[in-house]
Amino acid sequence: MLSKAKILMRKGFLRIAAAAPAVNVADVDFNIGQIISKLQALNNEVVELAVFPEMCVTAYTCADLFHSTPLLDAAEEGLLRLKDFSTQIDTHFAVGLPVRANGCIYNCAAFIRNGKIDLVAKSYIPNYNEFYERRWWRPIQLGETVSVNLFGENLEICSGRVFNSHGAKVGIEICEDLWVPIPPSCRLAMSGAQVILNLSASDDLIGKYAYLQSLLKQQSARCLCAYAYAGAGWGESSTDLTFDGKAIIAENGTILAANHRWDPDDNTVIADVDIEALNRDRLHTTTFSDCATTECKHITIETSSKDSISAPKPLDKLYRYVDPHPFVPSSTEAIDSRCNEIINIQVAGLAKRLHAIRCNKLVVGISGGLDSTLALLVAVKTFDRLKLDRKGIIGITMPGFGTTSRTHTNAMALMDALRVTSMEIPIAAAVHQHFKDICHDPAVHDVTYENCQARERTQILMDVSNQVGGIVLGTGDLSELALGWATYNGDHMSMYGVNAGVPKTLVKYLVNYFAMSHEEGSAIRTHLLDIIDTPISPELIPADEHGNIKQKTEDLVGPYELHDFFLYYTLRYGFSPERIYFLARQAFKESEYNDDTIKHWLTIFTRRFFNQQFKRSCLPDGPKVGSVCLSPRGDWRMPSDASSALWKL
Length: 649
Known about the structure:
Radius of gyration: 30 Å
Strand content: 15-25%
Oligomer: single chain
Distance between the termini: 26 Å
């Protein structure tokens, strides 16, 4: 199965569609023509799996006509047409129709591919809505099968079956099945189904759509699956109800695609769902399989498939948005909400630590850069929450060989505006003495030249914290930890690393959030905005002839927006460099980064990520703020001497 998945799925993605074409009530020929036309278009878009609405072969609103022999005969003939047509396309699809068996009628989904038909019946038939569906259809229990002969072929109507499709596992449920306390999709997913198809005919009411979207997001998240939903729409009877023609695709808690309701022409959505990411999350979430052990009974898993194993068509267009900044929300409102939550997490962590050790003094190095600024702002907010005097925060600026007047001015002015204790301790003389002690030529601007400065600063912070009976607050962020962009036992070390869970691309938004909370023109806001605009630099190399920053971090290790992208998909999903490269090309296709640039910095990221693990193995405590973290105590346990051979691009 694993080898087949690699052959059939393209780069771990399965292209699926949800479609709600127009119907004529009880006009099977028209409806089949609409379905075939839609399937031809989807096949041209290389869609591998499609779902259509409940009873789309006949229309859902036929009412007592479902007990009419002509309609039932026509539905079976229409199914035969679709069966024959399926041999001409690569798309596998599910359509809804009534099926007679043993003197009953079943509300069925016919899953059709390569001339093969499987029938899945609706498990939960409501008797509370306007249609009183039990009047026409019999429910089927999980694991139950009913034999039926259609056009000379013996078939089984079932519930609770997992099917193979293009290297993925597929489960099916119908409309009301999703709304019950334990939907069939829960057990289908725990039995291996990575994609759930829902054929629906849910009428529209005020507020119902928002509830449905929430339900789909929750169910796809709970089941760690992709969920494709197609609802009845244009052409259904409006005698008592209306149907808006919903087409929605969700994946693990996120809506990937949704059409514009009420528009007959906008009745289809397509998305590439990430099967590889879903598989990784299921492996990582051990409680998922634990639950499956006790809950998955009466589920039948298809062991054979008629999938063609010919080479797949190239994946030249991706039907999903790949966010180039996965750590940063896309809307201003969402950013503000995220920033508020992150800051509260940071403050809560630091407040607990200070309270636990009965400490009212913090020592923090202030460089005039983003990270130390964020740490200082969190410290101030923490002291305010604990009702401690801000003077207990000792901010120390330590100008060295590369310190510019811009960062020095911002550091001093910010500490003054925030009313914390400020100190200035130049390090040049001490570092020159150290160069003399270890016989290092100060004209050689190598790693020794840089790290001597970083360790001198850390020594000052540690010693001052001893003097005042406080602790050193670390400033390093998540992105620097991933790249190892820290001096071992220098800025790498502190008593509490408040920024340890915050990626670099998010730091500036947090600082900006603080800035916007102060009045326009205020000193705090003015200096915070200038800090945001200052190039990122450790300032360990002397400035240029104009006094400007010469050593820019992103010139040395690469753009942080690329590294944060690589970091997210490395930690969150465990993807290979090849797959991350593919996703990055999609995400940054409108940016300044060409393919060679992305590949270059991804290679650098992978090398540094492996080589610098030893620094992460002895990190100070710090709060986790998101799903991705590098703490060696819980989130990331990796040998410091692991080989990166398998991760070479």
